[in-house]
Amino acid sequence: MPADALATQSNDPSFADVWQELVWRGHIRVSTDEEALHAALTSGPITFYCGFDPTAASLHLGNLVQLIVMRRLQLAGHRPLGLVGGSTGLIGDPRPSAERMLNTKETVSEWVGYLQAQVSRFLSDEGDNPVRLVNNLDWTAPLSAIDFLRDIGKHYRVGTMLKKDAVAARLNSDAGISYTEFSYQILQGYDYLELYRQYGCVLQTGGSDQWGNLTSGTDLIHRVEGVSVHAIGTPLVVNSDGTKFGKSEGNAIWLDPALTSPYAFYQFWLNALDDDVIERIKVFTFLPRTEIERLERAVADEPYKREAQRTLAREVSTLVHGASATQAVISAAEALFGNGDLAETDAVTLEAALRELPNTTTSPDAPIAQLLSDTGLTSSLSEARRAISQGGVYVNNAKVEDVAATIAGSVLPSGVAVLRRGKKTLAGVFVE
């Protein structure tokens, strides 16, 4: 995120404190002692952390929730630690269904660098409370197995560990659970203990599905150091129909533009349902309460205008990809439907947009009728010729007049063409 974007962010002054705003925005699903935590957040700066495991080459939307919570706490004056788990990433926290595939040490080390760069973009490294990036491999690598079992493992009770949700789910499944993944909660608890000792860290944030791992740390610190520290579990974001948010046919929405293009990212938010959009705006944007309430009325009174969806898509895309990339996406979307000059549209953004549409790769002299059929805009060649003769087919927003016309002469300098049937049905053509 550009530094100027960080400079424009702020918490909403209509709330008495950051805790009240986090609650209103739906960021708190579960926490340790609420009264004590509220007091800690309002009585002076504290150090807090959130951990991100490098089990992939990029963070995703679930991680974005944590980054926004961290940024809000930082804006309130608190000191963030961004932990990227070089050691826990070698293990992986237990999934409810099956064992994780273990990645090589070289791969995990490479991904640590990627994730650290992403985390640092969302948190300021300036001022009195700059973000500090830490890697748990720094304190686990020197630790022998004997020292780990004697100094840390002795504070854990197997009966308690078995009750953790992810562990219990795996024990009741056909897959079972390995000792490797069973030990993950001890490693995460040890992280919190080390951060408490090194930096005075007294708060950890994470998803509510990680609550067992979060309390592993609070319990360990209480046993070893005799003090009470805090944890926040944010709600898992789901759609109003109960389906998992941020998944499309098994594919996550990534923050890395090489994995999810800015165009696809923008369209994902633009497609939010009316029932979901206001909650998304609360969680994923820095818009103030008054503006969110206005958008809520707009959804109720004029849902067909989709103002809330367009606002959500613009705000989150700008947050993740920056203002210029977001504007390029908006311009490309408008040009695709004839409200802009395709020749002047950013070529990379346009290509990414066409990759999200039905598309085909063809030769420079391919008949347009054939391309309509190849891309699925028509079900047959005869239907394609009929659509052209009726004046309902466009290439790069120019009407096709001749049923025998080819794509030659209509290809943009970047080697692509936009095929449209009617007002809204689009396809991409890539010319070799």
Structure description:
This protein is α/β, with parallel strands linked by helices and 432 residues long. The chain is built from 21 helices and 13 strands. It has helices at 3-8, 18-24, 34-42, 61-75, 88-91, 105-122, 137-140, 145-152, 158-162, 165-171, 179-182, 184-199, 211-225, 262-270, 274-284, 289-301, 307-321, 323-336, 347-355, 368-374, 381-389; strands spanning 30-31, 47-52, 79-84, 132-135, 201-207, 230-234, 247-248, 251-252, 359-362, 393-395, 398-399, 416-421, 425-431. It has a 6-stranded mixed β-sheet with strand order 1-6-5-2-3-4, with helices on both faces. A hairpin with a 2-residue loop joins strand 10 and strand 11. The mean pLDDT is 92.
- Alpha-carbon Rg, integer: 25 Å
Number of E strands: 13
Judging from the principal axes of the Cα atoms, what is the shape? elongated
Poorly predicted residue ranges: none
Helix count, DSSP H or I runs of 4 or more residues? 21
Averaged pLDDT, please? 92
Report the helical percentage: 40-55%
Sheet of most strands: 6 strands, mixed
User: What proportion strand?
Assistant: 5-15%
Specify the structural class.
Answer: alpha/beta
Strand order across the biggest sheet?
A: 1-6-5-2-3-4
